[in-house]
Amino acid sequence: ICRRTVMMKKILVTGANRGLGLGLVKKFLKNNEKVICTTRNISKSKELILCKEKYNDNLEICELDLLDKDSPNILSNFLGDETIDLFINNAGVIGHSAQHFKSVSSNHWLEVLKVNLIAPLLITQSIIKNIEKSSERKIYFISSKVGSIEDNKSGGMYIYRSSKTALNQVVKSLSIDLKPLGISVISLHPGWVRTEMGGPNALISVEESVNGMVDVISNTSIINSGQFINYDGTRLPW
Fold first, then answer.
1. Running DSSP on this structure, what letter comes out for residue 114?
2. Are 199 and 193 in contact (CB under 8 A)?
3. What is the distance between the alpha carbons of residues 152 and 183, in angstroms, rounded to a whole number?
4. Helical axes 158-177 vs 106-113, angle rounded to 10°
5. Which pLDDT band holds residue 4 (cuts at 50, 70, 90)?
6. Is residue 203 classed exposed, middle or buried when 0-12, 13-18 and 19+ CB atoms within 10 A define those classes?
């Protein structure tokens, strides 16, 4: 009997200490994939530490603060020449609660833009060689439907909305610039999820969102590069 060897994927997930990032890490580990993840503070990431104890060799944790201007170099040095099959840029912040017209301030805005917009692109720059080494070559940016200009019917949320709208533009440009390398780049909306960011009134659980996103990841390729996709697989308007 001839048995085909199935190679384990190497998956990089940023912002994995809680919520969707942690959910994605757990899902991939259960699927017997190898995972590298980042968190701002390893000692405070208790669930990640438990995952490390359980899965040991299949999980590596890199301490990374996206507000640190050296974070791209820190991550690329951590990876070395490791092949990355799938990169999920999940790390993000919603920002200060004062996001209506009369309360927005530049300091809060700049911090959110650094984490949600600038750091993801700079990190992608720094690890592109690791992704090029793979035969999978997939990048997914966790965005949000609130970044859709067409979908904005309620106004407000200036800081968070604008950071995700701008991130979607980055995804679109990357999809064009990286296509010659065979790398697909997709913007992914996780749904309104019951996390610390989404709040207790959100519509779906972390598990439902993660299962949906993993299905989308499994069923998309370079053909879908440059698209904005919901966790249930439907296309979203920019």
1. I
2. no
3. 30
4. 30
5. very low
6. exposed
- pLDDT over 80 at 8, yes or no: no
How does DSSP classify residue 102? T
What gap in Å lies between CA 34 and CA 10, rounded to an integer?
5
Q: Which residue has the higher pLDDT, 189 or 202?
A: 189
Rounded to whole angstroms, the Cα distance separating 9 from 101 reads 45
Q: Which helix (H) or strand (E) holds 188?
A: strand 184-189
Inter-CA distances, 89 with 16, 20, 64, 115, 188, Å:
10, 11, 13, 11, 10
Task: Indicate the Cα dihedral angle 65, 70, 75, 76, nearest 10°.
Answer: 170
Question: Percent of the chain, pLDDT > 90?
Answer: 86
Q: Give the 3-state DSSP-derived string for 154-181, with helices as H, strands as E and coil as C.
A: CCCCHHHHHHHHHHHHHHHHHHHHCHHH
pTM of the model: 0.94
How distant is the alpha carbon of residue 139 from its chain centre?
A: 9
Reply yes or no on whether the pLDDT at 73 is more than 70: yes
Question: What span, in angstroms and rounded, lies between the C-alpha atoms of 9 and 4?
Answer: 15
Beta strand residue intervals within 14-101, DSSP E = 34-39, 59-63, 86-89
With a CB cutoff of 8 Å and minimum separation 6, the contacts of 82 are 10, 36, 130
**83 and 132 in contact (C-beta within 8 Å)?**
no
